[in-house]
């Protein structure tokens, strides 16, 4: 039984869901052109991963093996629905942009993957921590990508214009379009893998 | 630019199909279905198999979800239940199709059957259903929109499969092999698909 601390740091570092497991990038990329959207998406994801891991772990002995997938999906969908309702009530402007992608958190492989690989075998508290750590690891990558894409593409950060924008910087529109996201994630995961490969050798 | 729903019926359908497949490609501009794409696109054959299954399932589930949404959820003011309903419809449909194909045609089952469980958690399918509700389409148009979306995914994943087969024979820099290089390839393809944008608007 690994300690709470190892569970937590594995999720952020060497088991990072995006770089190493290549899971859940579907809804990742679409929201990273504006940092504000990304922050809302991340909060929603951390909440749904942690809560659904907790609940699935609590009832793990009651779920019949044959229908466990559909039970997991329903539990996840319930929490995603809550996130969807809360965001549409508190931030309707942002909800207009990221609305469909919030729904897609349901099919985000990270949550299903953690439910299947961790929460079904472990006690509630470690599962909850694991959910939070996986969510944080995912959010970290998203935020890095958003912090690079938004200034390069729009010349703003969280909606505030950067000082250089009117002086010498010309907006690099491709960065906020789809290809920019693919390039950024490709390069970032290349760098992350190089770093981790180098570490393993030592 | 003329709006597709204000055009004569059949040309309108054709436009919806083309724009859903190319200008609004679900994988390359909406980032959906990436997990299964990265997992399956190592070979052209498997890409084609999964692609065909996706076309079939997206068009049918988009049509079913259209009926459920407009005739069941909206009249009873249950709009907020759409996420959970859509995912149940998709999961139930893929399960049903799997059983039918298994009984009727073992050959087709061997070709497509193994992909069907994968599809239930493919975000492209749920994504099409979620984007569909924000569009002003009728029943037939929704079906065509689903088919076009699936076709776009099929084209993208088959092309990626072909490129990856060649790439795998090359020597790559350390850490770049696998998902990072695939993401960069997808980025370049997305760049090419931007050329289609502005051609039609739905």
Describe the protein's topology.
The complex is a heterodimer of chains A (202) and B (202).
Chain A: H1 4-12, H2 26-30, H3 35-58, H4 68-90, H5 92-103, H6 109-119, H7 124-154, E1 156-157, E2 160-161, H8 178-201
Antiparallel strand pairs in A: 1-2
Chain B: H1 9-23, H2 34-40, H3 44-73, H4 82-104, H5 106-112, H6 116-120, H7 123-132, H8 139-167, H9 179-193
Could you describe the 3D structure shown?
Chain A has 202 residues and is an all-alpha fold. Chain A has helices at residues 4-12, 26-30, 35-58, 68-90, 92-103, 109-119, 124-154, 178-201, and strands at residues 156-157, 160-161. Chain A has one domain. Chain A has 8 helices and 2 strands, in the order αααααααββα. A two-stranded antiparallel sheet of chain A has the order 1-2. In chain A, helix 3 packs parallel to helix 6 (109-119) and helix 4 packs across helix 6 (109-119). The longest helix of chain A is centred in the last third of the chain and has 31 residues, at 124-154. The radius of gyration of chain A is 18 Å and the shape is globular. Chain A starts with a helix and ends with a helix. The N and C termini of chain B lie close together (10 Å). Chain B has one domain. Chains A and B meet through helix 2, helix 4, helix 5 and helix 8 of A and helix 2, helix 4, helix 7 and helix 9 of B.
Features:
heterodimer, A: 202 residues, mainly alpha, two-stranded antiparallel ribbon, 2 strands, B: 202 residues, 9 helices, 0% strand, globular
**Approximate shape of chain A:** globular
Helix-strand topology string of chain A: HHHHHHHEEH
In whole angstroms, how far apart are the ends of chain A? Answer: 26 Å
Residue-averaged pLDDT of chain A, rounded? Answer: 79
Mind telling me the C-alpha Rg of chain A?
Answer: 18 Å
Largest sheet of chain B: none
| Separate helix tally of chain B | 9
Quick one: overall form of chain B?
globular
Total domains of chain A: 1
Look at the helices and sheets of chain B and give the structural class.
Answer: mainly alpha
Spans of chain A with pLDDT under 50 lasting ≥5 residues? none
Proportion of β residues of chain A? under 5%
If helices are DSSP runs of H or I spanning 4 or more residues, what is the number of helices of chain A?
8
Low-confidence stretches of chain B: none
- DSSP, total strands of chain A: 2
Helix/strand-derived category of chain A reads: mainly alpha
Described by strand count, sense and barrel closure, the largest sheet of chain A is: 2 strands, antiparallel
In percent, how helical is the residue content of chain B?
Answer: 55-70%
Radius of gyration of chain B: 18 Å
